[in-house]
Amino acid sequence: MDCRPEELLIAAIARLLRGCRNIAVGVSSPIPGSAALLARAESETPLRVELLESLDGNSFTRGSVELFDRAAQGRIDAFFLGGGQIDGEANINLIGTGDYPRTAVRWPGSFGSAYLYFLVPRVILFREEHSRRVLVPKVDFVSAPGASAPEVYRRGGPTALVTGKALFRFDADRRRFRLESLHPGHDLADVLETTGFDFDHDPAPATTTGPDAATLEMIRGPVAREIAKAYPKFAARVFPSPGPG
Amino acid sequence: MTDSCLFLSLDELAAQVPDGVSLALPKDSAGAPMAAVRALVRRGAKDLHLINVPTSGLATDILIGAGAARLVETSGVSLGEFGGAPRFNAAVKAGAVRVRDATCPAIYAGLQAAEKGLPFMPLRGVIGSDVLAFRDDWKVIDNPFAEAAEDPLLLLPAIRPEVALFHARRADRLGNVWIGVQGELAIMAHAAERTLVTVEEVVEGDLMAREESAAGTLPEVYVSAVAEAPRGAWPSGFLDLYPTDEAELADYARLARSAEGFAAYLERGCTAPAPAAGR
What we know:
- The structure holds two protein chains of two kinds.
- Helices cover about 30% and strands about 20% of the residues of chain A.
- Chain A is an alpha/beta fold.
- Chain A has a single domain (about 5-240), classed as Glutaconate Coenzyme A-transferase.
- Chain A has a six-stranded mixed beta sheet with strand order 3-8-10-11-12-13, with helices on both faces. A three-stranded mixed beta sheet of chain A has the order 5-4-9, with no helix packed on it. Chain A has a two-stranded parallel sheet with strand order 1-2.
- In chain A, helix 1 crosses helix 2 and helix 6 (about 215-230) runs antiparallel to helix 7 (about 230-240).
- The longest helix of chain A has 18 residues, at about 215-230.
- Chain B folds into two domains: about 5-105 and about 160-270, Glutaconate Coenzyme A-transferase; about 120-155, no CATH class.
- Helix content of chain B is about 30%, strand content about 25%.
- In chain B, helix 2 packs parallel to helix 3, helix 3 (about 60-65) crosses helix 4 and helix 5 (about 105-115) packs across helix 7.
């Protein structure tokens, strides 16, 4: 099925969300947000999606402080984090490159990552750019660690990493990623070349499955219309003409 | 005894934020007080300690660019879909502003400690991050209630802003302010010594008189002053009243890449009032 790269990512992330009952989506996350909406549309059991950045897309009545409290209460199953840098142990850096605090490059900041990474069972790392600049051997600043010492209270953490080229699963015990599939059009040699950390993989990895016709229709219709409320610029670029409704 | 709420012009309101104070600002989507920020720039505010609750965008970027801030306590400064915050990023690189990097729930927790008159608040997570490593004002203790042998727990000192400043939909003439579901504005106001609010409109009647409106109202007891500022969050969007002015934000993101461009933006943007709807 021909689809845009963003639509493939939305479908792939939505599959990682199967079985969830409560998904929260933070700021600057149009593709994860679309994936969560798709997972809701395809779920046979009730599934709540809280879009932090959408006026009527969440059920918080005490502002975003409620997201963090709900996470601590165990009421959020899945969340998404990104990173200017992500390393092989799933440490993420949202602060910048070089020596802190006067980093050579400064990014916005750690947001809720240093907390939600510990408390949300299924954290999916998402970063479209797949390069040695992003996927580094060791992050320059740990906004949130991928793993913790056994005495540290931790009920959540990274389960997968999705990039524009591939999908990895994270093995928390071994603190290591395993390549699960390559997106159509990408090969193992290229992914090895553009990944700055070591990871496990099969000799001939699987290919990420794209959306079927029904899923694609769902993405381009109801999902596109809903995500446009939170991310109008993204929606206008990726879904130029969402269907009527 | 409490003073009654003052009703001021924008410039009078800005004069209520003395140089050097700690100033709490909400995240952009929860009522960015942009008209008041422009008034602060007009009055040449200096040495502010900005506290982002828990993040910020244009408001913080403009204040930093205008040289009004010495310290920013934040969990993130970004223009969202319009990219990084250019003046913030440049000032951090140049060392022109100090950053106290936090994580969103830590800022809320510090404010919640202040709400309760407590010296600190515990919080899960964060242990093992460099966010904690660079915060010598944050402490880790062993949970005294733990059943297991060891349970390290983060403690955050109370955050008591000298001034909180935000934009809201409406106030009544008693100084009660409707904040609806933006409950974090109440946390900010409870924690702050004084709260200044700009509103889209001042309405007749008493917002506290009926439960339906009282439930979403910040009572005047927390409100020091109100200024009426229609479209006071512009160019940020505000609730369902008006969307983000995308052309203006794109303009800002482009101009503020350089100090000269930012100065040109200020020249144009901080002296004129917010344009009327339909721009």
